[in-house]
Amino acid sequence: MIIKRRKAKAIIGYLAVFSILFASLALMDINESKAEVITKTITIDGNDVDEFNRFKGFGTVSGNNTSRLLLDYKEEHPDQYWEIMNQLFNTETGAGLAHVKVELGGDINSSSGTEPATMRYQDEPANVLRGAGFQFAADAKSINPEITTEILRWGEPRFSWNGVASGDYENRYQWYKQTIDAVYDEYGFKLDYVGISQNERAQNGNNRVEVDWLKYFTSKIKQETNYESDYEHIKLVAADGYRDTSSISRVLLDNPDLIDEIDVISGHYDLNGSSELTQLQNKLKSEGKKTKEVWVSEGVSPMINARYRENMQPSYDGVGGPYGVVDIISRIISVYSWTGETENPLHAVSFDFQPSVAAFYQGSQYNPKHLISAFDPWSGFYEKDAGVQGVRHVMNFVGYDDHTTPENERWMYVKGATYSDGSEGDGGVQVDTSTHNYMTLKDPETDDYTTVFTNNTNDTRSYTMNAENLNGKENATVYAWETRGADAGQAYDANWFKKVNEITPVDGVYEVEVKPYSVVTISTLDKESEVNDFEYQSQPVDVSEDTILSLPYTDDFEYDEYPVDNEGRDYVDRRGGTPRFTTDQVGAFEVVKKATEQVTSGSAARTDLDIPDANAHGNMLQQKMAHDIIGAEWAVWGGTDGAASNSNPNTTLGDFRWVNYKVSYDFLLDTHTPEVEGRSNYALIGVRQVKAGGEDSHAPYNARVYSNGKYEILKLGSVVKEGTVEDFNNKIWHNLAFEAKENVFTLYLDGGEIDTYTDEDSTVMAGRVALGSGYYETLIDNLRIDPIEGYAYESDKYDSAQGKYFDTEEQALNNTDTLNPIGYVGNWSFTQAGYAHFNRTQMTASADFPVWNGVTIGHQDTTDEQGTLNKVFYSGSWGSNSGNAWGNDGDSLEITFKGNEIRLYGETNPSNGTADVYLDDELVGEANYLNNSSIVKEVFSIENLEEEEHTLRVVAKESYTSFVRAEVETTEETSLEAVTGLAPSNIVTIANDSEVGDSENTVYAYRENGNAWGSNSTNAWADFNDNPYIVVNFTGTGIDYLVGSGNQTDYKFELDGEEVGNFGPGSDDVRYSVRDLEEKAHTLKISLGDNEIEEQYMDYRGVTIYSTSETESSNNSMIFNFSGTGFNLFGATPDALLDVYIDGELVDEEFRVHSRGDRQTSYTIRGLEDTNHTAKVVVKGGTFVFDGMDIITGINDVEDGGDEEDDQDDTELAEGETGEVFPGYTVFVKNTDTKIKMPVDLPKGTTLKVEKVEADSASEQGLEVAGDVYNFDFSESHAGKYLLTLGYNQASYNADEVSIYYYNESSEEWELLGGEVADGTITLEVNHFSTYGVFAETEIEDEDGEDGQDGEDGQDGQDGEDGQDGEDGQDGEDGQDGEDGQDGEDGQDGEDGQGGENGETGEDGQDGEDGQDGEDGQDGEVDKDEETGQGGDGDTNSGKGDGLPETATSTFNLLVLGLLLLVLGTLAIWFQKRKRA
């Protein structure tokens, strides 16, 4: 008993302690970080230094046109210009960048634009004033003279290439040498380095190094008489390879005469060395020679500013996450010390941002990525992001090159205190994968030291630092600096570059903590006491300073208002002829002071050219690149060395917030340069430019006039209007003008209207201007960009990331944050996208409600039996993936359908062609699949067919033909089909049969032996040795089990417990498909069965579930307050239905957004009162992708109606009369109360005939005529917003008795629409016209008549745009496999490896155990629908506001339990003490 009592007492004691401990845990602040604390001891041993490598640090590339607009900042706002430059290069209060690499321009687009060549002819003196690069480098050196400089070529001038092509390098050598000389002569500094190779010619060990050129340059430069004084100091850099140090290393190993000539080996976007590099360095060490310095000479800059990241990725605290500031700063550490490369470390000592300042227009290729963005030189506005402060953590605490002490010119690496691990990403370490990332450097003279930590994970890291062998600095005060995200309630930049601690070591030992997603620097340097304003002070961006470039804008290229500089040079001369606010994309546009022509071909010598009206034209803009001097392309990523571009000269200028405007200029075509075939001679204007892409300009709309009088209007590269100007004289000046007025585009010549085009899709509704020409010396003068009377030109642009997530609409409506006005409610997912998307951000929401309620035939709805109804029959060699099928010349497809209309959709891109379309064996048209970017769009349609079976046949005839889906209109009743995709990453892994649950639309993945299925966004996998199987619980009428390429094993399928067979991979990416099941819960089980194993892993690529839609609404909405008269939403939406509310009123119901390309308009509205509004956009069906929006801040007078007494906006027609009607005008029917206000996008030239109708048949429906009844016959069938007003007989009918009805010709019945009654009229907004009238119900009809009136569903169908099964909304964006070159978009985005923006979430094969990468994993990120599906995991009530979230309930219960246990524990202790007493 004594023993038992002691045990009981012990139990009570343990219970007491446990209770108190548990209670204390329960009572902890529930907001306390749960991040794991990782500890480590770091020894900073001053003797443990790298004797071969010295730290160089961060630098920058100025190339690809990225610095161009800095020239304008310097002229327009010099204070802001020098602020920018000091932010980049000041070593105390700025980033302190140590190196500037300038592109040696070749007049070719080297990615983001054109850098002008310093020489265009062999006999032309080098001109280093052209472009911005050398001026940028000179001004940087004026801030810090120790900055080193370098040149590197991408392309090259034609005269240089022509010699190289025949093995003669002298012209190329002279180009280099004379440029080196000119830099010194013009700017007074000598280049420190010459990049001797072509940028990224060497790639992934391809051995493309121009050995003969290297030998020619290195030997020839030594023969110069002034070699020792002017060139000997120059160090040579090679080979600037893309993830390639092996090619140049092998060259040096194999060529002893070169091994001592190359000083630096440079590579891009890589953490790995190579066996050849290791062999080379070891050889040099063994011979007692200096090893080669290794640089990452081009690396990615931060993408997506911290203020956007904080909103959309709050878990990363604004500065963390992929391509965030922490990630980018960590790369200077990882390129030196990444432990993942064990055999062949890179040991790179520098990292050059490409670029550091984005001084080129947003939307250009690879923009944005930057430390500072500066593309508004007219206002002087620029934005510096956290990247500047991140770089300061490194560069403000180390020494710089000191050329007076070469042996100690830089700080030294402390090897044992420098470390980096984690999974390799795109040139860096993947987020949330590393355990430690730090670098320690010490001053070789003073033994001061600095350690930089980066933590791009959710774990807190704690370090014990042990300093030793530092000559007295072991116990020196250590100053700690930190950059991290904001705390609750703080400005987003509140915690950037803050001193957080002063530490006094004890015997060299002290502690350091590094918070999640932060950068921390500890240093013995007390910079704060030495430098005024050293600590960063919060300065959130003030976007009110980002003012629009006001219109009218004019440029006569005289620039008399600008003063001369200190050397007496005027505006034109000191800028090398660079015109104001322009960024050349192809060719070279420069200001000239007089007209000249070439004396002889191939020479720079010129003579005066007599031109008409010479006295009226002083300075002029001239396109300088004739067809015989087109630069040699940068063809390393495809194409042919030395090729001349197929794109034509164009330059971009202005503000991408411009909406409606007219561009005009005087032009004189070049008639002295002989025209050659394939190089047209013309003048061009483009409007609404927002992104890169296009052969003639980067604007979506272009108009041009050729030397033979031919004219064209183009949309997205396709000619939409063309003709010929009679008696066109190409030897005189003309005035060209192109007007963008809402969605109407009009071409003018010499003040007269030539032609007009109405874009029914309203593809792009705001953007900049482009100027262009052929490869001729076209002269341009008197540029004007004018507002259009009565139309707004101003807008504000908002990014999709200028918003926040809210749980309820009420919270979103109460959002008062004007910088972030958008509220997202429901299931929205954020994507860090590529440069083609505004600020690289995207928001996506999906809904099960179908966008199409007719018959949809998808590309995977295949048949082997020709003539099968609603199936596609392929003939020829078709390829396919989950997004589309494609065939080549001669391949065909057939669809047999029953209906009265069919619409054909396909993937359009620059690689595709055209196809002939046959209906019932008769040629009826052509489908065009060619587009300047990759999007799914309608390529053919035919309507007004007999309601019977038809066969549509499509035959490819030029390049590729694509098929995504066909939509069939039919009078037969069709069920609404919803399509749900379950992504391969959306699985529940189980290890026991009993764990298979009954959750709807859920995939259970079983695997034995303690292993779980691996998965990513593309596929899931499990080793067949673990007896894996898949169970899919789904509710619906059908399912597709998808398959990837490379899988040969047959799988056993069981549906609802019954074996249905063994199925292998199909040709249509579907392994198993079933339809027409009963709409109920089903179970599909997939296993190996008795089949032979053909590969190691079972593969799962997702399923597509088909069901009868019962969804009526969606809670996925975006809500925003704005002040203005309208807005545009834009983004690459695949297919969606939207409900749009303005100020609580539904203004557009089930508005269908057909497939849109990057930055293309998905929805637009105008005509609102110029005041404050609240908009709500509900994603009702399909998938909606949102990049951003334009808020129209001006007034369109034509929409307001202007002065109602002003007859110019009115047209009057008599009954039976036909007359032309105009956009925005009101048409009155004479002597009646009937009138129609026309939509602003009504096609030009539309006519209307109004005829009175006798509606005798209405009585059969129990209706009687109560007012006007008319048939409205328009010459153009245009769906738009018409405001119809009809009069009624007030004497006979009350206001509540009358309504407007529409006559449905198909059903031959009058359908109720409604309307607002006032003063004897009734008004209703309609979207198309036929016959309308005012009726009242007769008293003899009973209320059963309501069945006839219902018609609401029929009304929805009137616009003909509703519907779509949503299939391609879920995977239509996948694109086509790269093997056929079909997609184009992915291939063009060269940064999918270089800068990595498209590889950001490429986690394929992350389960290293299985290594199941799979070639299809490359496009894993494209299926945005998968991400949306994942977003809802475990939160099925998200945003509905039906009750407390589960976390709140469990926390409350835990608190109660904790209090109870605390009381029990206290009582138990008191009881024990009392017993003892």
What does this structure look like?
This protein is an alpha+beta fold and 1477 residues long. The strands form 17 sheets. Strands 2, 14, 15, 16, 17, 19, 20 and 22 form an eight-stranded antiparallel sheet that branches. The chain has an eight-stranded parallel barrel with strand order 3-4-5-6-7-8-9-10, surrounded by four helices. The longest helix is centred in the last third of the chain and has 31 residues, at 1446-1476.
Number of domains: 7
Strand content: 25-35%
**What is the arithmetic mean of pLDDT?**
87
Gyration radius, rounded: 35 Å
**In the CATH hierarchy, what is the superfamily of the largest domain?**
Glycosidases
Number of DSSP helical runs: 24
CATH architecture of the largest domain: Alpha-Beta Barrel
Task: Output the CATH class name of the largest domain.
Answer: Alpha Beta
* DSSP strand tally: 88
CATH topology type of the largest domain: TIM Barrel
Describe the sheet with the most strands: 8 strands, antiparallel
Silhouette: globular
- Structural class of the secondary structure composition? alpha+beta
Instruction: Pick out the low-confidence regions.
Output: 1-34, 1200-1208, 1340-1456, 1473-1477
Helicity, in percent? 10-25%
* N-end to C-end Cα span: 21 Å
Protein name: galactosylceramidase
Membrane topology: Peptidoglycan-anchor
EC number: 3.2.1.46
Subcellular location: Secreted, Cell wall
